[in-house]
Amino acid sequence: MRLKISHRTEYSYDAPVSYALQRLRLVPGSGPTQTVQSWALQIEGAREEVHFRDQFANDTRLVSVEGEPHVIAVEASGEVETIDKAGVYGPHQGFAPLWLFLRETPLTAAGEGIRGLVGGLGEGTEIERLHKLMRLVRDRISYQPGSTNAETLAEEALSLGTGVCQDHSHVFISAARLLGLPARYISGYLMMDGVLEQVASHAWAEAHVTGLGWVSFDAANGISPDERYVRVATGRDYRDAMPVSGIRLGQGREQLAVSITVVQQ
Predict the structure, then answer these.
(1) What's residue 67's pLDDT?
(2) φ and ψ of 139, to 5 deg
(3) What dihedral do alpha carbons 80, 85, 91, 97 form, nearest 10°?
(4) Cα separations in angstroms, 172 against 109, 115, 152, 159, 190
(5) Most buried among 82, 109, 178, 230, using CB within 10 Å?
(6) Superkingdom of the source (predicted)?
(7) Packed helices 165-178 and 126-140: angle between N→C axes, nearest 10 degrees
(8) 3-state SS of 102-125?
(9) What are 15-33's pLDDT values in tens digits?
(10) Closest Cα partner for 179 from 97, 102, 98, 238?
């Protein structure tokens, strides 16, 4: 499937920005489940300082702002050819060792709730237990935009019982690590049926399964990702893979607008 994607992020300020440094992870790469046919990154009101691959092999750009601009806009767009591999991404590659994805992070630290979730999985093969885990996470956390934020911990989201794809992914990752399986966070895009314009990118999780390698699980939708998904960045949790992050100096108020379209060509 060929998908056409446009992702615009715009920050506006009511006063000049003294200084800002933004880290962008907005450029997908080709791999087992996708081939990037074309991609462009346009930056308005800022300048690119450095371009590198981070420890998770994510295409990373640092851009800076200083002085006059009242609007900073970043638009990523292009076309990606995808294939359905039933969620199987394959063998581990990259700079980061596999054992790193067994370590919990502040966002994915397991508490009594997640330990109880794992305790209720019962017996089965690795892949069977992971699919059951995906269904349990979806049942326990109803999708409700605005009920959590970027700093919400996995244990908090499970206790609250509501959240977004970030929370589903963090709970799944935390539980998979308790099972002794390396797990990681994936940020990217999803072509949604009947939805033309989206206000946020998507996220899902992967666990490393014996004999298969990395296998994807989208607990928010209760499925393994197919050809409607485009992956952009990978990490131990949201902070490692977030599309845009950074720091800003100044007293001006900030307003954020995000517009994303994912359509089939």
Answers:
(1) 67
(2) -70, -35
(3) 60
(4) 11, 11, 14, 14, 19
(5) 230
(6) Bacteria
(7) 140
(8) HCCCHHHCCCHHHHHHHHCCCCCC
(9) 777 788 999 999 999 999 9
(10) 102
Residue 74 · residue 11 · CB < 8 Å = no
Q: Rounded CA gap, 60 and 246, in Å? A: 12
* Structural domain for 76, as ranges: 2-81+244-264
pLDDT for the residue 144: 94
How, if at all, do strands 202-209 and 183-190 pair? Answer: antiparallel
- How many helices (H) and strands (E) the chain has is answered by 5, 16
pLDDT in tens, 61-81: 999 987 666 788 999 999 999
Q: Are residues 19 and 73 in the same domain?
A: yes
Residues 52 and 98 in one domain: no
Q: Domain count for the chain, please give it.
A: 2
Q: State the Cα–Cα distance between residues 41 and 26, nearest whole angstrom.
A: 8
Q: Give the pLDDT score at 133.
A: 98
Q: What pLDDT score does 199 carry?
A: 85
